[in-house]
């Protein structure tokens, strides 16, 4: 693997406990944390969850149920994105065993995610972000399904489903689908300026 690419499959990570949840942490970057939480059926903790300084975005990989916050209930299912602000009290009440992709960042640099469905021969270009060196360290990807190719200067690094990967901030690269089967990739960022690092790619 190129030293500019850091990749790890979820099967390589040991489970830990995060506020009553089983949790696998892929990366802890200066302004971004990426991991997967595994929730059992029913209330997942005796008390409501709350994060003092971080904002969190959850992407539902598997399962369904109720998201509860401020006395309101919202149905969640696969593909749903749920954003939680710092100091917001909430809980999940799953109807089925549930897996959540968890993206957290300081509230001053709110996290963002862009779920991406890539069809055959599709690609997406990422350039270094010149607006803020600090924020360029805060961009990761997670492959939900299929095999995603990372192209760095013509060298390909294939990332299979269940892998999270991070590429050094000063590297220009493309994510590519070189197969006929569609793939799903979650792109995770921290801060509004980090979104500027993503540029459309027009194949010639």
Describe the structure.
The protein is mainly β and 204 residues long. It is 2% helix and 54% strand. The chain is built from 1 helix and 19 strands. The protein has one helix at 133-136; strands spanning 5-9, 16-18, 21-29, 32-39, 54-62, 65-69, 72-76, 81-84, 91-94, 98-106, 111-118, 123-126, 139-145, 147-152, 155-160, 163-167, 173-176, 183-190, 198-199. The strands form 4 sheets. It has a 6-stranded antiparallel sheet with strand order 2-3-4-10-5-8, with no helix packed on it. Strands 1-16-13-18-11 form a 5-stranded antiparallel sheet, with no helix packed on it. The chain has a 5-stranded antiparallel sheet with strand order 15-14-17-12-19, with no helix packed on it. A hairpin with a 2-residue loop joins strand 2 (16-18) and strand 3 (21-29). The radius of gyration is 17 Å and the shape is globular.
């Amino acid at each position: 693997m190129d030293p500019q690419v850091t990749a790890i499959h979820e099967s390589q990570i040991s489970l830990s406990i995060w506020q009553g949840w089983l949790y696998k942490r892929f990366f802890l970057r200066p302004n971004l944390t990426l991991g997967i939480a595994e929730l059992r059926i029913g209330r997942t903790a005796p008390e409501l969850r709350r994060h003092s300084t971080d904002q969190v975005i959850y992407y539902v990989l598997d399962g369904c149920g109720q998201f509860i916050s401020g006395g309101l209930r919202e149905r969640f299912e696969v593909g749903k994105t749920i954003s939680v602000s710092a100091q917001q009290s909430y809980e999940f009440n799953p109807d089925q065993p549930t897996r959540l992709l968890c993206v957290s960042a300081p509230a001053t640099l709110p996290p963002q995610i862009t779920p991406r469905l890539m069809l055959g021969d599709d690609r997406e270009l990422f350039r270094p972000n010149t607006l803020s060196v600090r924020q360029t360290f805060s961009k990761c990807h997670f492959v939900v399904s299929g095999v995603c190719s990372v192209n760095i200067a013509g060298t390909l690094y294939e990332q299979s489903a269940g892998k999270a990967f991070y590429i050094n901030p000063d590297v220009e690269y493309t994510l590519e689908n070189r197969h006929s089967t569609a793939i799903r990739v979650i792109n995770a960022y921290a801060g509004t300026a980090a979104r500027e690092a993503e540029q459309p790619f027009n194949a010639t």
